[in-house]
Design goal:
The protein is built from 13 helices and 18 strands. By secondary structure, the protein is of the alpha/beta class. The strands form 3 sheets. The protein has a 9-stranded mixed beta sheet, sandwiched between helices. Strand 16 (about 445-455) and strand 17 (about 465) form a beta hairpin. The longest helix has 21 residues, at about 290-310. The chain starts with a strand and ends in a 13-residue tail after the last strand.
Length: about 500
Amino acid sequence: MQEKILILDFGSPTTQLIGRRLRELKEYCEIVPFNKLPKEMNGVKGVILSDVAPAITDQSVFKIDLSSIKGQFPLLGIGYGAQLLAAGESAKIHYDAFRTYAQTNLASTDAKDKLLQGLQSDSQVWMAKGETVIQLSKDIQPVAITADNELAVFKIKDEKTWGVLYLPEDVRTLEGTLILDNFLSICGCKRNWTPTSFIQSTIENLKTQLGDDKVVLGLSGGVDSSVTAVLLHKAIGRNLSCIFVDHGLLRKNEFEQVLEDYKHLGLNVIGVDAKAYFYKLLKGVSEPEQKRKIIGAAFIDIFEQEAHKINGVKWLAQGTIYPDIIESLSVIGKGVKSHHNVGGLPEKMNLKLCEPLRLLFKDEVRKIGKELGMMSHLIKRHPFPGPGLAVRILGDITPEKVKLLQEADHIFVNGLREWNLYNKVWQAGAILLPVQSVGVKEGSRTYENAVALRAVTSVDAMTADWAQLPYEFLAKISNDIIQQVEGVNRVVYDISSKPPATIEWE
């Protein structure tokens, strides 16, 4: 049985960072909404309670009964999770008018405390300001105080229960990983989660889950669906049929290139030209969420149509990964956006879902692909949204707009490769803006389209910074696009980071 740490999500955007830090420490973990505690706790070695989002002012909605886990498992509360533990011991929480985060330093620590072993007494931490635990009860033992004389870490007497009032998962907390490392030791974790162990356990689980059933996989050409395909192929062989749909929203020449790439993997790949079908459904549709849902539903329609041609198909496999889930679902009922894998599915499906990567981050998927021996350019390929260029064309979709954007995008991405910048960037692409501007071309006035270039650096897509590409490169790409792409007379560069912006514009 796979041992794991269970993380209860109270809505903080850094909850996923906790999971990432634990995976980096080779411990498997699962994140679940705070109000959906599993009935069966098999394999659980410890539980972590996350923080809430800074924008949430009414925290009463997150009140839960911890009696089934508190004292039963080692328990670590972080931020709001720590406040919840303190309040359960009759402590009081003082709230200022504004809640923000800032760097501070610890002033004193209990070196004997197991959670703080090896921690510097003046360690720098990233901490919520404006919320202070006061009026401690006799069962709350302070084990770390900040330079501002605020409680930073406490332990519940006679329990393996701790509260940390700063964010150990944040990179601005210099020894935060040490706290999580110590917690894993307290939990008695074996820390045996590696790409090799994931591959072995996943293949065995897929064999058990699928048996002799036939599976159809929606192949996109990206690393997520590619790794999914290889894992399934190793588990069920020829019972897997991969369908690669050309929805008319792919990059230039991508359909042909992807089909060529998959020949070496021995996969059974069926190419489907559905451009006309998708263009018809998307005609006149401008609203981003509606576009995503139309494309998601149309994908399923195509899959089901193709599945009927293959006798006995019972499963639809998808390359859904964890950021897709997080951005589509929320503990407070509203996600950032729907994802074609998880947000646009029709209520009634004729196929059951199989998503073997749904708890992995992108960099973990790449490690799995490398371990599987996949070609480097498949593993290192930039993420590309399932809805394709539909979410990079702001406004309605037409074949003419798609062709224009494909050409601009092709110049940009190929330029990154030629300048040896491609592997230094997490994700890049061009966006067609719904505005036109005045320009001059060949001595004549023009009134044509504007294109935005987007390139970001990231580790897992949960946060991202805009890539500081060389000015000389941007100047050349801008000039090439304007000169070579008919209908474009202006190029701009997006310098927004995530958050608050998302990587894609829609």
